[in-house]
Amino acid sequence: MQEGRPSKEIWIVLLVSALLAVLNVTYLWTQIWNPSDNTSPESQTAYNANRVAHGESIYLDYHRPPYNIAPYTPGYYLVLGMLVRYLNAAVESIFPLGRGISFFCCLLISLFLYLNSRFDGDHPAYSLTAGFLFLSSHILSLWGATTRPDLFTMSITIAGVLIYLRFSDNRAVLFSAPFFVLAFFAKQTALSAPIAGFLHLLFEKKWKNAFLFAAAVGGSVIAIFSVMHVSTAGLSTMNIVYGNVAPMGFQNFRVLAGPFFQVAALPLILATAGVLSGSYRSFKSLYFMIAVAQGLITCSRLGSNQNYFIEPVAASCLLIAPGFRTLEDHLKSRLRPLLLVLTIVLLFPAILVMAHSVRDVQFPEDQSIRKLVLEADGLVITDNSRLALLGRDSFLIEPFQLSYMEKAGKWSAQGLVEMLHRHEIQYVVLMRPIEQPLTWQGMKRLPDGVIDAVKSAYRFSRLVDNHYVYVPRR
Length: 474
Hints:
By secondary structure, this protein is mainly alpha-helical. It has 2 domains: 8-359, no CATH class; 367-472, no CATH class. The chain contains 22 helices and 6 strands. It has helices spanning 8-31, 42-53, 75-87, 94-119, 124-135, 138-143, 150-167, 177-184, 192-203, 207-231, 235-240, 250-263, 265-277, 283-298, 310-317, 320-330, 337-359, 367-374, 385-390, 399-407, 414-421, 448-457; strands at residues 379-382, 425-430, 439-440, 443-444, 458-464, 467-472. The strands form 2 sheets. Strands 1-2-6-5 form a 4-stranded mixed sheet. Helix 4 packs parallel to helix 7 (150-167), helix 13 crosses helix 16 and helix 14 runs antiparallel to helix 15. The termini are far apart.
């Protein structure tokens, strides 16, 4: 049992992180009702969930109309789609439902982190700090209320981690395997925890348990993936594997990794101290190190974002209590106020930012452009995913992936180009002029072939709600 009288410093850290967590949760609640996409590709996820609700296949051939990709394993689509079907919800209602799931999962993960610390015998002050530091993360303010699988996947993973930690000394550790399999089929990047579990069992020289664990997780994943491949005639593999092969680049790493180390500095420092206080071969230490490494690698992919650092933040919070105790033990009493200074320097600016965000919530005015798209008789091409979802046939919802696939020679825009030259597209609606197309991480959001076809076959008509509307040249 680790419980003992905590120092006054931990109480200050607890209060500051709790205040920021309350602000974060309040802001996330307001974002559930945002009429526009909170993140990309929310509309793509809503589209696939809506297909589930209507009994349609998730995975399509993205070489053919409507040119839509389903880039993730099906778990989140299925859960959200069944909920939409049960509630008989309209397309626009999918967003608050999906965001509500993510919001609830944020709270659930925080509870799991608290329980992990309490199960270890830590004082409630340390345990609450672990939960609140996760909830106070700036990364959550961006991704904690989105119609995406990230938080749903993370909650299943942390549930599996709790079971693993409780039973790692015996064969019952295998009860954690189904959770890691479910997490993988919610989003295929959920790899760090099972890899850490396998390595931990090997380091503990529990050879039989290690290979049974690997067989349970790996064998289940391979078997289910094979069934998916056969039952969808290869379309699931096309979408999940080939549709996700994005180029790696240092520019992406530089843009994303730097802010991550800034906004997550306090839990990362405490977790590192926690690793140094014990054995790097412990499950928590391995999980933290692997999660950080995976986050840094995956953020280098074109199209990646800060959501890949949700798991490193959660993994770091598993080590908050031992990390804080280590710093307390190694700092002399007159140096302990440095912990408070560190907390204030790292968290207080975030409190000011979130307080302003909560007070000044604003949503874009886009009713006119929505009306134009909804009332269009023909197809609409747009770089605004929400508008694409609302249009006829939900056409080309997330063009960015097709854009970099076109660059790599793995997808051709020829079919779309021919439709544009035949004027089969009624409107092209863009967030930027066609001469200055929208870009992300140096890549144009629309494929080059589509941009060139719009320039030659369409003309600018009018500006509606800051969207540029193009119509066929006659």
